[in-house]
Each structure stands twice: as structure tokens, then as C-alpha cells.
Amino acid sequence: MTAALNLPIIDLSSPDSLSSATSIRQACIECGFFYLVNHGIEEELLGHVFEESSKLFSLPLEDKLKLARKQHRGYTPLFSENLDPTSTSKGDSKESYYIGPLDTRSNLNQWPSEDILPSWRPTMESYYRKVLSAGKRLISLIALALNLDEEFFEKVGALNKPTAVLRLLHYPGQLGSTDEEIYGASAHSDYGMVTLLASNGVPGLQVCREKSKQPRIWEDVLHIDGAFIVNIGDMLERWTNCLFRSTLHRVMPAGQERYSVAFFLDPNEDFVVECLKSCCSEASPPRFPPIRSGDYLKERFRLTYGS
Questions:
Q1: Matching SUPFAM superfamilies, A to Z (predicted)?
Q2: pTM exceeds 0.70, yes or no
């Protein structure tokens, strides 16, 4: 029996930002995960996102493959990704769809035909913009949690043109019998700065707080209606000199269809990520050299997809 992980709930609308920042700091040092409520995304809009996501993934495979992933935009089929390089499975049992920035880079995005899914694009664009706004407000609290100025990441230009990516995910309910262990998403940590995840409530997400220990102990992350599950990525762990933790997590099959939507908020491609002054000292010097955000993410994608 897997135990449930007890995570703090952060209220993004709270006027007491210092108290919220203190709770975020503790959560990020201890396990790198927390819940986020009152984030400004209406329940109705989130419901539409899951409806439109379901419509897309219900299309015939040949139609979905016409939108196959190019330049990290578009559709990826079942088993096309294996997030755990030590796993011997044929790939993760999920299909997904990437949507990138909506600014001048938006011409890289691929959109389903309006003849087939007329409400799809406006729904996703509306959700993207609202969760980006929530993510930027969250980053201000993370700055406070790191003993920095609330507007630090804005002032240094890290989020002028953020590399923010929306990823729709579908985990099939039944995959037939097999002797091979099947994962919805095999064990991994996220690559970037911070991830905001919403789901349709079907369980499956698990966290391993101590990734270096064997055997690994996995704990369930329970669904809370209306709450995002937020986790820290490898880039922010690097940025904070490993003060904040990017935690190993996975999705296990639950015997039901699971839909989720992940929003990955990362810095501008050209922004140089180097140890924050509040996270290093003579006793704790920087562990990593500076690196361009875009170069770091490109290499992580190459290791996952081979391109």
C-alpha cells in the first residue's frame, strides 16, 4: 500500500505573501512539490480544456500523426517517450500534445483543423495565457522564498520571453495484459524551472523524495479539486545550488483514462542560469557552471527524444 504525501496548500490570492513564501521555501527544500489554489483559472475553463483534449486524443491515429511533433510542438503517440533511461519498457503508455509560446514564436505551433475541432485553439490559447499569468505570480513568491526581491526574476530579464510550454497528456485506461511493467510516465524529474499540473482527478501520480536511496519509496500525490500540483524542475534546482529540490516522480496506470495538462514555465532561451547569490557562500560554493537556458533544455530533450 502506497502512502499519501502530505503537501502544503499555497493560496496564490493571499495578501500575506511573506507567509506564502515561507511555506513554499519549506516545501521546496523538503520535497519540491506543493498545491496551488485560488490561482485565477476558472473551473469552467479547465473543464473545457479537458473536453477539447479528450476530443483531440479520440481522433483516429492517422489524423493525429498529421500533427506529429516538430520543433517540440504537436502530437507524440503512445510509447514514443521513455523518461527513465534505466527502464527496459518499450516506452511510456501515454500520448501527448505540445503547445509553445503564443508570441511571435507561435507560428511554430500546430493546430488541429477548425473544421474538425472548432473550439480547440481558442480554448487552449485562453488557458495558456491565464496559467502563464498565474505562473508569473507564483515566480514572484518563489523569489521571496529564496530571500530575493519579489520582482527579481522580472528585473533580471529571465521572463521577458519565457519558454512556456503547455502539454496535454492522455493515459489510456486499459492496455491489455502483459508481463512487462507498464508506466504511464516512468520515473523522472522535470527539466525546467517550475511545472503547474492539473488533472481530471484520476489517480496515478507518485513522488519519490529520496531518489538516491534504494529501494525507492513512492508516495501518492492526491488530487484536490481546483488545485494545481506544482513541482520544481532541474533547472531551478541547479539555479538554487540544490537548495530547492527537483524530485523524482512517475505516473502509474490506474485502470481508468487519465487526462492531465502540464504547464512548464522556463526562462528566456538566451537567459544565463547561474547560481543565485542567496544560495551560495564561501562554505557552499556554486556546484554548477553558468549555462544558457535554451542550451540546457535542448540537451535534455535530445536525451529524451533523440532529437
A1: Clavaminate synthase-like
A2: yes
